């Protein structure tokens, strides 16, 4: 971009006689060239400059499988939004940076978005420790930060006014929605297995009271370090009278975990209920997973194309590029993170709706954008919200949506029960709207 | 679960870890012993072994047994060849200077890791074991009629895990025989004892170095192939394995094969048992404490020989 104009200018200056003059013109030319991209392309039409959305991608580190699909979903969503005319008539551009699934790096990435790459907003982070580590920086930078994390840290009041989670439900509502099914259908005595950090604690702290309220009992809580690679040694801690195993694991060793659980129990397993996080991006037909047949999973959105899927779900799946098994259409072994990545699609559509409601023009309107999103409530199911009808709570910055319980049938996940968002609500724990910007 | 069966289960799990660790750490120890190079990229060769096992399996597409045997042969060869290449193009240029090779192998670590991420991807991918049947283990019990056998709930292992333990023992025995009985082993030990003198006696020291570096990487790759049907191949799997290998090698004595094996069993078993009965964090604390104690009271390691 800087090449062409400087060449042209230096060519013009060669007509001038003195060397000093030539140098001066050259310097001016270089200066002009440096500012060129800013004014030449959009001369006279400031508002035609694209809206830039900074996307903190877990490209490396333990979240890498999620990061890849989060990016694919976001790119697909923006292609749709741009094809439909962009936001306020402006095209939208994704500025992707690797945050290494690392809180420190993620905070630096936010800074880069705000000061260096001139992004309007930041978006995309998933892993809870990364969100919790980076969100304070977003508030300092006064940068709207749309996370797709499903952690309870947004609605718990731990974060700030600049951080919102409008595209994916949080663990507390998910867990609350699962407890009645667990105790009514599977069994009363529940043993929990969860990762030993924030995300796992969200499950521990919310499931235990929910199970008690539903008339059951949590008989054991087994925390496993997220970096663990061998799991058999933990399973003897499962009490003998357990009727239901509740498992939720994350990270690269999830397949080992589920496999070794099958080997541990052999033919006499209790009922098993897992969060799909334990097998997100993992093929259910992987060797060693046969024993999962007949077990249940929570899914944020069904991985396998269901028979009764509406057209807008099919359109969403086609746009992202996943087949009927939830794997990439170009590589059947590349299984998606279907239960989470829809959150990127929906968040980007909410950003569009928010920017249009706030008549967003420049970074000066960031506060108006937050206020516009806070004012949102019901979001009907459709092309913008393929996961289902939702309600956003502007006070807690958290959305509530449907939850799916699927049963492994013939090696595929088939939705057995759907919990509507009304049954996942819980009392507010914070009112961000009373906080200052 | 009762104490007895629980302990047996912990020991079995510990033994699998010890077996893999012993193989991997012996590679690290061999490289340090002969070349005096601290190979920080050793964990990545382990990862490459696992990744190559997946590649071989998916390219070949035969039965699980054929695939696995092919991976067991091909993956260490490929990784070994890569390591030889790294030795010739990088380490040799640094004249095997101990400090500079550390920095160089750190660089190598990142290059291999990123290439794996770019080429293989961020997923953990499984490889089917050649055989894998669940074996329920019996336990003795004092019944009314004396000693009786029964099968406690959950006390089981798999045939493949037992195979890993046996395979590691056989491979380590073969390595020991190779080092002590073969001519190539003699040359390696001669180079280890005194590189300059070996050169004077016409031993092509640089070629020996290249082969030793390749062999060390191949051992790590072999450990990777053995573990991949239990765990999965993932581009970050080398980190923890490297740390444990260093712990083992420091406790056992850098360059001592016997020490490495003893330390691997010690660390593997204690990790298995302590993390079952207490917490995994305590197991790591104790292992690190052990390293500190060894470094203070016996810097050459349990089986190491003092520098001359």
Automatic annotation (TrEMBL), chain A:
Gene3D superfamilies membership: 3.40.50.2300
Pfam families, per database record: Peripla_BP_6 (PF13458)
Leucine-binding protein domain residues: 50-411
PROSITE patterns referenced in this protein's UniProt entry, alphabetically: TAT
Keyword field: Amino-acid transport, Signal, Transport
A GO BP annotation: amino acid transport
Tree of life domain: Bacteria
InterPro entries per UniProt: BCAA_transport (IPR051010), Leu-bd (IPR028081), Leu_Ile_Val-bd (IPR000709), Peripla_BP_I (IPR028082), TAT_signal (IPR006311), TAT_signal_bac_arc (IPR019546)
SUPFAM superfamilies in the record: Periplasmic binding protein-like I
Family in the record: Belongs to the leucine-binding protein family.
Record NCBIfam families: TAT_signal_seq (TIGR01409)
PANTHER family xref list: LEUCINE-SPECIFIC-BINDING PROTEIN, PERIPLASMIC BINDING PROTEIN OF ABC TRANSPORTER FOR NATURAL AMINO ACIDS
Protein name as it appears in the record: ABC transporter substrate-binding protein
Species assigned in the record: Pseudooceanicola sediminis
UniProtKB/TrEMBL annotation, chain B:
Gene Ontology process terms (BP): amino acid transport
Keyword Transmembrane helix: yes
Location in or out of the cell: Cell membrane
GO cellular component, one term: plasma membrane
Chain segments annotated as transmembrane: 6-33, 45-66, 72-90, 102-121, 160-179, 208-230, 242-267, 274-297
UniProt entry keywords in alphabetical sequence: Amino-acid transport, Cell membrane, Membrane, Transmembrane, Transmembrane helix, Transport
Bilayer topology term: Multi-pass membrane protein
InterPro entries: ABC_transp_permease, BCAA_transport_permease
Keyword Cell membrane: yes
GO molecular function list: transmembrane transporter activity
Annotated family: Belongs to the binding-protein-dependent transport system permease family. LivHM subfamily.
Name listed for the protein in its UniProt record: Branched-chain amino acid ABC transporter permease
Organism of this sequence: Pseudooceanicola sediminis
């Amino acid at each position: 971009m800087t090449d062409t104009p400087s060449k042209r200018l230096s060519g013009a200056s060669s007509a001038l006689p003195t060397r000093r003059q030539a140098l001066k013109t050259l310097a001016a030319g270089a200066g002009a060239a440096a500012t060129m991209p800013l004014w030449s392309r959009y001369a006279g039409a400031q508002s035609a400059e694209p809206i830039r959305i900074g996307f903190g991608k877990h490209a490396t580190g333990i979240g890498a499988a999620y990061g890849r699909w989060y990016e694919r979903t976001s790119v697909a969503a923006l292609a749709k939004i741009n094809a439909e005319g962009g936001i306020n008539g402006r095209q939208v551009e994704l500025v992707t940076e690797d945050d290494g699934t690392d809180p420190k790096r993620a905070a630096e990435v936010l800074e880069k978005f705000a000061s260096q790459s001139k992004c309007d907003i930041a978006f995309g982070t998933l892993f809870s420790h990364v969100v919790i580590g980076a969100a304070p920086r977003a508030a300092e930078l006064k940068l709207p930060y749309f996370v797709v994390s499903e952690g309870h840290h947004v609605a718990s009041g731990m974060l700030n006014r600049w951080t919102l989670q409008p595209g994916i439900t949080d663990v507390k509502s998910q867990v609350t929605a699962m407890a009645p099914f667990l105790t009514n259908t599977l069994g009363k005595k529940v043993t929990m297995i969860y990762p030993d950090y924030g995300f796992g604690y969200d499950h521990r702290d919310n499931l235990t009271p929910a199970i008690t309220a539903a008339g059951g009992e949590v008989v054991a809580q087994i925390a496993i370090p997220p970096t663990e690679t061998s799991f058999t040694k933990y399973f003897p801690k499962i009490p003998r009278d357990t009727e239901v195993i509740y498992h939720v694991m994350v990270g690269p060793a999830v397949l080992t975990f589920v496999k070794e659980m099958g080997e541990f129990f052999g033919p006499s397993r209790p009922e098993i209920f897992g969060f799909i996080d334990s097998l997100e991006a993992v093929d259910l037909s992987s060797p060693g997973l046969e024993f999962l047949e007949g077990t249940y999973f929570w899914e944020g959105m069904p991985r396998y194309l269901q028979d009764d899927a509406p057209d807008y779900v099919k359109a969403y799946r086609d746009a992202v590029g996943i087949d009927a098994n939830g794997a990439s259409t170009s590589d059947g072994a590349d299984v998606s993170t279907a239960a989470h990545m829809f959150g990127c699609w929906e968040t980007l559509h909410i950003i569009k709706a928010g920017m249009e409601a706030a008549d967003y023009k420049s970074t000066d309107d960031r506060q108006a954008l937050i206020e516009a999103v806070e004012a949102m409530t019901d979001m009907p199911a459709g092309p913008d919200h393929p996961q289902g009808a939702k309600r956003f709570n502007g006070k807690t910055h958290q959305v509530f949506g449907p939850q799916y319980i699927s049963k492994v049938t013939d090696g595929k996940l088939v939705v057995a029960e759907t919990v509507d968002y009304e049954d996942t609500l819980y009392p507010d724990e914070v009112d961000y709207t009373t906080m200052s910007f | 679960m009762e104490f007895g069966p629980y302990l047996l289960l912990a020991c079995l799990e510990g033994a699998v870890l010890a077996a893999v660790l012993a193989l991997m750490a012996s590679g690290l120890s061999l490289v340090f012993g002969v070349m005096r190079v601290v190979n920080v990229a050793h964990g990545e060769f382990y990862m490459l072994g696992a990744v190559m096992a997946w590649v071989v399996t998916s390219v070949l597409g035969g039965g699980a047994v054929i695939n696995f045997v092919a991976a067991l042969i091909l993956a260490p060869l490929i990784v070994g060849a890569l390591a030889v290449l790294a030795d010739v193009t990088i380490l040799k240029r640094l004249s095997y200077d101990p400090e500079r090779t550390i920095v160089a192998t750190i660089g190598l670590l990142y290059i291999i890791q990123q290439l794996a991420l770019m080429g293989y991807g961020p997923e953990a991918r499984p490889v089917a074991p050649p055989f894998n049947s669940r074996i329920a283990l019996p336990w003795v019990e004092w019944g009314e009629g004396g000693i009786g056998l029964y099968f406690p709930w959950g006390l089981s292992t798999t045939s493949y895990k037992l195979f890993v333990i046996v395979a590691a023992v056989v491979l380590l025995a073969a390595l020991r025989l190779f080092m002590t009985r073969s001519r190539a082993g003699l040359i390696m030990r001669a180079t280890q004892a005194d590189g300059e003198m070996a050169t004077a006696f016409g031993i092509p020291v640089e070629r020996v170095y290249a082969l030793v570096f390749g062999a060390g990487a191949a051992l790590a790759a072999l450990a990777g192939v053995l573990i991949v049907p239990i765990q999965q191949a993932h581009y970050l799997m080398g980190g923890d394995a490297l740390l444990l290998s260093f712990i083992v090698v420091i406790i056992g004595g850098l360059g001592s094969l016997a020490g490495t094996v003893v330390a691997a069993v010690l660390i593997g078993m204690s990790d298995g048992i302590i993390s079952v009965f207490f917490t995994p964090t305590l197991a790591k604390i104790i292992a690190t404490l052990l390293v500190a104690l060894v470094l203070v009271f016996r810097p050459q390691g349990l089986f190491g020989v003092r520098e001359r």
